[in-house]
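Researcher: Good morning. I'm working through a list of sequences from a screen, and I'd like to move beyond sequence-only analysis. For each chain I'm collecting a predicted structure so we can compare shapes side by side. This is the next one on the list. No need for commentary yet; just the structure.
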Amino acid sequence: GRKVLKEINKQPPETGRIMEFHGVDAREYEAIEEVLGETGRTSKPRLTYDYDKNSLLVEMPSAIHEAPFDCLKLVLGQSILAMPYDRDLIFPMLHMNSSLSAKRKSVTPDICMTVTPVEGPTKIVLVPFVGECACSEDKGHAIRKLKDTIAANPHARMAILGLIREAQPYRSPKDDSVAWKTLSEPDEVLPLDEFIVERSTPCTPITIADHKWCHISTVEMFVWVRGDDEATIDLDNQDAEHMAHGTLLPDID
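Model: Good morning. Structure tokens for this chain:
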């Protein structure tokens, strides 16, 4: 457990990196989860644990990683409010980075919808929607993560995968660079609205103090639905009835 925490704490709070550890028993995982939950980090790592394989996946979230689903949560929330359902019976809710435990797995999808009863114990009775967003990550690896999430919640009716690709991976400014000298002068961290003062056009790099901080090349979205005759969502099924694909960058399509 200590070795895992040491490796996690080596990383800056927001890097978008992924680390995988094997041979982590359940007691160690629960201790790691507790320690990380008590830290003062504003951006906590996302943990996915398999109790059977004793494997732990740690993802360091980034602002880029979350951005596509911020808008998606808003639109889905409005759609849920417009749906006809008995508000005295069930309570649907959208969550970002909320841990879900089921069938000896603990997964943390980037976005999910849960349904709980209005009365009685606060117990999740259904997870109809799950989503993952991957930044500069191999598509196959991202799909495997989403498959794990679906396996833990087989009754899900819809799943979404966002793939963000960077033209240039993030690198911190080098010592004695213009950015290093410029940004190390203030005594306090600059707020975002003072750090980014101009809106960049899509697919162009965000350059501040002669340093490229972010350069997104493409954003793809994949959506799957579970067919009426299917036991679970099949992410390998790419026919038009079960899967849709679109892009947000460089063009909306």
